[in-house]
Amino acid sequence: MSGLLKACHPVPAAAVTLLAAVLAAAVGRGLSGAALVAAAVGSGQLSVGWCNDRVDLGRDLVTGRQDKPLVRGDARPAAVTAAALTALLLCVPLSLAGGRLAGCAHLCGVAAAWAYNLRLKSTAASWLPYALAFGLLPAFVTLGLPGAPWPPWWLTAAAALLGAGAHFANVLPDIEDDLATGVSGLPHRIGARASALVGGLLVVASAAALVAGAPGRVPAYGWGLLAATAAAVLLGVLRPAGPSRIPFLATMAVAGGDVVLLVVRGAGLAGRA
């Protein structure tokens, strides 16, 4: 069980699940609605994480990735495969329980993540599944409200930009190992330094869309979030080269700040364009 837990990429899975649940509460889904969103998003994240480690097993063995449970033998490949498929099957009814349109939006995002794992990771379109999956997350949340309203454009844009930025940040620590095993997504093609810059700009653009796009006067917290995001990105770009999970964790922290900003500025987001 410990090996399975580590193989699901628990930190990003928990972060995305928590952010989705808080967003659901912020737009008025209530406690039960937020719990349903958390269950659906959590099962989807588990399926994606387990799928990722199982698909990458061959490459991880070649590069000797001792931080991977499957390489260390902490989990069996068959068990990870079964866990990924079980979580995916559970994700379908949990997603559709919030409404047909909402469920389809979330399942499209999960399908995009699986497509990344299975094929798109090694293409120039490697950023697209991240942008699509993150961009559809607000739609999954708001489409579960009465009347099934779509989220405002600025919220979708902020989420999609954040997802694309997360992709560039997440690739950085493993870029050399990936290249050695034939993985050539967009970050690998433009190089580590350029990827850090592009990822940082995408994250800043995400924060800017959220701060400037929401209706009403921008609070001091909003400008502070934007300034802190820009500062964090600058430090990430200027930091010495080398493997580090800090850029990705910083991206998740920015996502948390974004959700807090949404709560501070109030609910009633659904349906505003």
UniProtKB/TrEMBL annotation:
Membrane topology: Multi-pass membrane protein
Entry GO MF terms: transferase activity, transferring alkyl or aryl (other than methyl) groups
Subcellular localization: Membrane
Claim: Transmembrane is one of the keywords in the record: yes
One Gene Ontology cellular component annotation held by this UniProt entry: membrane
Main location: membrane
Keyword vocabulary terms for this entry: Membrane, Transmembrane, Transmembrane helix
InterPro entries: UbiA_prenyltransferase, UbiA_sf
Name recorded for this polypeptide: Membrane protein
